[in-house]
Amino acid sequence: MKVLTYPGEEAETRIEQIVNRSLSYPVDLEHSVVEIIKAVQAEGDAALLRYTRQFDAPRIKSEELKVSDSEMEEAAKQVDPDFSGLVQRAKENITAFHQAQRRNSWFMPRKDGSILGQMFTPVAAAGLYIPGGRAGKTPLISSLLMNSIPAIIAGVPRLQVVTPPRQNGSVNPHLLVTSQLLGIREVFKVGSAWAIAALAFGTATIPAVDLIVGPGNIYVTLAKKLLAGQVGIDMIAGPSEILVIADFSANPHHIAADLLSQAEHDPMASALMLTADAALAETTAGALKEQLAELPRREVAEESLSAFGGIVVVNDLDAALALANKIAPEHLELLVEQPFQFLGKIKNAGAVFLGHHTPEPVGDYFAGPNHVLPTAGTARFASGLSVDHFTKKTSVISYSSEALLRDAADIMRLAELEGLEAHARSVRVRLEKDQALS
Question: In sequence order, which residues have a C-beta less than 8 Å from that of residue 171 and are 6 or more positions away?
Fold first, then answer.
């Protein structure tokens, strides 16, 4: 990639392209998803079977839409013996991190006899969407772990996994073994927008849920967007992105590898480096060219870097941090000598990776924090998937007669100013009754 200098017209234009990346969709595509949703709502399993046969598994039968117990048992025989141990180690790390997010209900009694508080309760059922991963050849184990574990810790009683089947109607055994290790037995062989619609409305085979989480293609994303309100969703996620801030202490080969780790995801992915070291910028550009030539997903990465990538030289690290907060990246790496020195200056980022030994994939797979993160600048107001997404917060209010008497006049006055006489009356009749009794 060409090395740009900021401030400078070319660098500013490239940064604006990244900042203004929006989650826009062709109108005809949205119409297609609307039709899919309507079909599933009206026809249920018949629509699921039709779409699944058309796009995924041509010979699948209706009774095969749900993974059977025998398929679960057979899956364990098809994976390497050490796979369960690997999943268990990742599960322990992710669980330990998310355990710290648990919240307890609380109550605040007051001297006048009133009690205020908040209850935290899990949703009754959640649907976990797990993408097919190149027609089932690359099972997205990490997505299943990251989406299910916070739900399990929140105490969600029912978890359902939906994932596109392979062409022969099966599900990759690694996903099924992981589901069993997580204690999830409800796995359904449906994908794309029809899977989201099924989870939202329910069918004879797939029960409806209260919340849908998990990444997916543009059809999945649009379906979640259109059905938000009918069902809860985690977020509207866009293409992956990384921003690397580096100083003289960074290794250019490490930076190049980290940039490519996101550029290979999608042509719309963004990979940007900011540094005050012009020499480091040039050597990183060279390393990027070398590594790109060897990358299996070279064409995807090249398209991403061409549209939304960049190596930008800034005046100093403070300027880099200011730009990072403007961009609000999904992943922010601080490959600098003293990364904790700058952590307090980061205001907008989905996740921050500190130091030379913390590449972004550490967070994607194993460290513990969730890898479902806000993208496209939404880290300005949004957070990564957490236990909170699976819980509801219910306010608790209990007034004593003394507390009502004290606040009654203020409550009635506010209600009357808003033209809501019945609101005021619901307080007034209690005062009149209490006065009559006294």
Answer: 67, 71, 75, 136, 163, 165, 187, 189
Q: Which two tokens stand for residue 281?
A: 């910028």
Position 66: which residue type?
K
> What per-residue confidence (pLDDT) applies to 432?
87
The CATH architecture one would assign to domain 3-23+238-367 is: 3-Layer(aba) Sandwich (3.40)
Q: What is the structure's pLDDT at 437?
A: 58
So what's the pLDDT on residue 50? 98
Please name which of 67, 40, 41, 33 lies closest in space to residue 165, comparing C-alpha atoms. 67
Where the chain has pLDDT below 70, the residues are 22-23, 434-438
- Please state, in angstroms and rounded to a whole number, the distance separating the CA atoms of residues 365 and 94: 9
At 99 the three-state DSSP class reads helix
According to the model, what pLDDT value does residue 434 have?
Answer: 65
Q: What is the architecture of the domain spanning 27-78+106-233?
A: 3-Layer(aba) Sandwich (3.40)
Task: Quote the pLDDT of residue 219.
Answer: 95
DSSP assignments along 345-402, one per residue? T--S-SEEEESTT--HHHHHHTSSS-S----TTGGGT-----GGGGEEEEEEEE--HH
Contact 147, 199 (CB under 8 A): no
Q: How far apart (Å, rounded) are the C-alpha atoms in residues 107 and 119?
A: 8
Q: Catalytic site residues?
A: 330-331
The answer to whether 238 touches 377, Cβ cutoff 8 Å, is no
